[in-house]
Design a protein that fits this description.
By secondary structure, this protein is mostly helical. The protein folds into two domains: 404 residues, Sodium/glucose cotransporter, CATH 1.20.1730; 60 residues, no CATH class. 78% of the residues lie in helices and 0% in strands. The protein is globular, with a radius of gyration of 22 Å.
Length: 477
């Protein structure tokens, strides 16, 4: 019966997505929902897109395995990225009336910069989307008591997300996200109350006290150079690397005015940070209710603790609500993060190689949909490989932003706030950032200064040096 209810929910999501397709008449509708969305929808999209599999399964697993400091990249870095984007990037980008973030790099610099950075942005989504699909596979595996293997669950999950994203685009993301955010917030809060009423738990305070006594709230690193640098790099990899991302830009850009673009992103990011505590609370409560089960799962896969706890210790109706909320969490993130790279590839890479860029809105729309299908296939391959290599969901998401931190953040920041930034500076920033990051991944992947952070420093150096050296001389000016 539980699988039956979950199946009905999946069918409902697909139906909403297909209904959204009736609002799509051109590429602009598909990519930005006509820039007509109100505050509540933008907040819901920002919150629900980022409140994904890593928030419900990955972050709590890291908290159990390590401590609060282990979650520095997410939710701390992730929410920082959303708030910074809203405060410093959303308004100037919204005023430019862009279709994609890649368009900014073409307008501010040149086409080579646009193509290279757009490719890097699209590549960064591979790990993030795959993390959601892997989580769907895990959910189907747990729900079916192993009847559906995790690889089979990956295929089913990818097919469902593809179906309702393919035709409706951003309208599909907007409408399904509004429903999904409601299910997420109401469902998880109700489950939290139910768990808090258990005699072994006794409310929030005992859980917090037990976690504190176990050292789980240790946050700050030891006062050692290597530990401090690693801690800061963990925060900034996601905190800055997530800023030059199409999905963040797309949600802000879909608002019907710039006030909504700014504050919808800030409020959504703040809600994400606060609400990320709920899955941590639920997962740690499982250690008090069933220590033996938790210990066994921690030795195998900590990501299974919460879904297994719900399935074995909560009443049937609570299981329906939890798994409905969990599927909402995963699918809302997967749809948004599947659309973003596909849009970037079609608009900023494929379109640039078309003869004279003669492409009608209708043709661009169909090319974007074709890319959605192709990128989904790539995601499935990467997801299956990740299962073989036993990469955790939290790691997959945290690793996704290394490439954008190394080569895209500095050109975006300098392009908006430094008038002297030039094409040469942007080119050197990309080149040095990528070369140093990739080289350090091979030479010293475990160095005190993480490879992607070395790439960020190199990118900044390239931007400053290249821009200053390419300034016109006073005589020629």
């Amino acid at each position: 019966m539980l699988i039956g209810f979950v199946t009905l929910y999946l069918i409902l999501s697909i139906g909403i997505g297909l209904y959204a397709a009736t609002r799509v008449h051109n590429a602009s509708d598909y990519i930005t929902a006509g820039r007509a969305l109100p505050m509540i929808v933008v907040v819901a999209m920002v919150f629900a897109t980022w409140f994904g599999a890593e928030t419900v399964l990955g972050i709590p697993a890291t908290f159990l395995d390590e401590n609060l400091g282990g979650t520095i990249s997410d939710p701390f870095g992730a929410s920082l990225a959303l708030i910074l984007f809203g405060l410093f990037f959303a308004r100037p980008l919204y005023r430019m009336k862009l279709l994609t973030l890649g368009d900014f790099f073409r307008q501010r610099y040149n086409r080579p910069v646009e193509v290279v950075i757009s490719a890097a942005i699209a590549l960064s989504y591979l790990g993030w989307v795959s993390a959601q699909v892997v989580a769907l596979g895990l959910v189907f595996n747990v729900l079916s008591d192993g009847l559906i293997t995790q690889p089979e669950g990956v295929l089913i999950g990818a097919a469902v997300v593809l179906l309702y994203t393919l035709f409706g685009g951003m309208w599909s993301v907007a409408l399904t996200t509004l429903v999904q955010m409601t299910v997420i917030v109401v469902g998880l809060l109700w489950i939290a109350k139910l768990v808090g009423d258990m005699p072994e738990v006794g409310g929030i305070a005992p859980v917090v006290e037990h976690a504190a006594a176990s050292g789980k709230f240790e946050f700050w690193p030891p006062l050692e150079w290597a530990a401090i640098v690693t801690f800061i790099a963990g925060l900034l990899t996601m905190g800055l690397g997530s800023i030059p991302q199409q999905d963040v830009f797309q949600r802000a850009n879909a608002g019907k005015n710039e006030r909504i673009a700014v504050w919808g992103t800030v409020i959504g990011g703040s809600l994400y940070f606060v609400f990320a505590a709920v899955p941590i609370y639920l997962t740690y409560s499982a250690t008090l209710v069933d220590p033996a089960m938790t210990a066994a799962l921690l030795a195998d896969d900590a990501q299974l603790v919460l879904p297994t706890f719900v399935k074995t210790h909560l009443p049937f109706y609570a299981q329906i609500i939890f798994y409905g909320a969990l599927l909402s969490v995963i699918m809302s993130t997967a749809s948004g993060t599947l659309l973003a790279p596909s849009v970037t590839i079609s608009e900023n890479i494929i379109k640039e190689f078309m003869p004279h860029h003669r492409m009608s809105q209708k043709k661009l729309l169909w090319i974007t949909r074709a890319v959605v299908v192709a990128f989904t296939m790539l995601v499935v391959v990467y997801s299956l490989w990740s299962l073989e290599s036993e990469t955790s969901i939290h790691e997959m998401v945290a690793n996704a932003y290394k490439v954008t931190l190394a080569c895209a953040f500095v050109p975006l920041l300098a392009g908006l706030y430094w008038k002297r930034a030039t094409n040469t500076g942007a080119g050197l920033a990309i080149l040095l950032g990528l070369v140093v990051w990739i080289a350090m991944e091979f030479i010293a992947p475990e160095a005190a200064l993480p490879p992607q952070f070395s790439g960020l420093v190199a990118s900044l150096t390239g931007m400053v040096a290249g821009s200053l050296l390419s300034q016109p001389s006073p005589a020629r000016a």
